[in-house]
């Protein structure tokens, strides 16, 4: 009776262990197969972030913040007077 319980426990744990090893191998293989696509995605995201930062710096240099401050101030004033 106890021997059957230990055997069942051993078989169950072995099946789970084998499943996890196979899952790990499958994930590693998938990462290996898609590494070029991932690299190109990372480059595209980095370029997009760089363009966004350049645009943000350009908008700060052109004085857009003064216009935004004026618009926000006018909106707050209009809200408080109504």
In words, what does this structure look like?
The protein is mainly alpha-helical and 82 residues long. It has one domain. The protein has helices spanning 2-33, 35-61, 64-81. The chain is elongated and about 85 Å long.
Task: Describe the secondary structure blueprint for this structure.
Blueprint: H1 2-33, H2 35-61, H3 64-81
Task: Give a short synopsis of this structure.
The chain has 82 residues and is an all-alpha fold. The chain has one domain (2-81).
β-strand number: 0
Q: Would you list the SSEs in sequence order as H and E? A: HHH
Give the total of domains: 1
What is the helical fraction, as a range of percent?
Answer: over 70%
Shape: elongated
Q: Which strand-content bin applies to the residues?
A: under 5%
Low-confidence stretches: none
Main sheet?
A: none
Q: Key terms for this structure?
A:
single chain; 82 residues; mainly alpha
